[in-house]
Amino acid sequence: MTEPTRAGFVALIGEPNAGKSTLLNQMVGAKVSIVTHKVQTTRARIRGICMEGTAQIVFVDTPGLFRPRRRLDRAMVAAAWGGAADADLVVLLIEAHRGLTEGVKAVLATLRERLGERKVALAINKIDKVKAETLLGLAEEMNAAYPFTKTFMISAERGYGVADLRAWLASELPEAPWYYPEDQIADVPMRQIAAEITREKLTLRLHEELPYQLTVETENWEDRPDGSTRIDQLIYVMRDGHKGIVLGHGGETIKSISQASRAEMAAFLGRPVHLFLQVKVRPNWLDEPERYNEIGLDFKDGN
Question: In this model, does residue 263 exceed pLDDT 70?
Fold first, then answer.
């Protein structure tokens, strides 16, 4: 007899910068979520898909849970909790060296309120940053604070413990047919992944000047007969001064960002890419429903 197939959704939740996007990319084996040293860089619920034996695990990489101040913040936090509520399993990721912070305590309180009896696994990330005895003490403290189904010690960046976590998740999913083809790694449109790649390059290059006050949209996507792809993207900023920062002296900054983004897109797609970037000033983009729809968030959740 053949082993039955399993399939289900796993939500990765935690504070900003806990390593959720890094863990997702490590699980899937490809870069499907933006990874930077800046917090709150994941805006949409990006689904990465991986196979583990006969199980298909669909990961929902949610925006970091934090105290929202702006409409965009509120929409991101609503998306995070929505992703957790819809999932079959939840993994709470915390940083080993930060421990049980006030932010984590707030997340635990909301877990009780929103998820009820849902199975929640604890993944203590960045274990290479603390000593073994500290890890054991933190695991005891966390399990005293919340009834986790299972606890894992991992390094999402280095891959330590990730295989054990993936195997456990696969075994806990319900028996069901797969949701996606076996070779598919994400259910995010390629246009959105391309926009995220460019936004990551902008965030890395301009992290001091413009951390969150810009967004990227893929305006046009054309697969050409010669096997290459033309991608036209718009970068929206809030002020004229921001436009100058993105462009840089003599267009040097935007050229560098375009080169880095194009190279990553070409590697991801496995074909030549012709990338054209345009910067537009849109003072109120944070209050426009269209901008939220483009990045997979619900504008109404920001109320």
Answer: yes
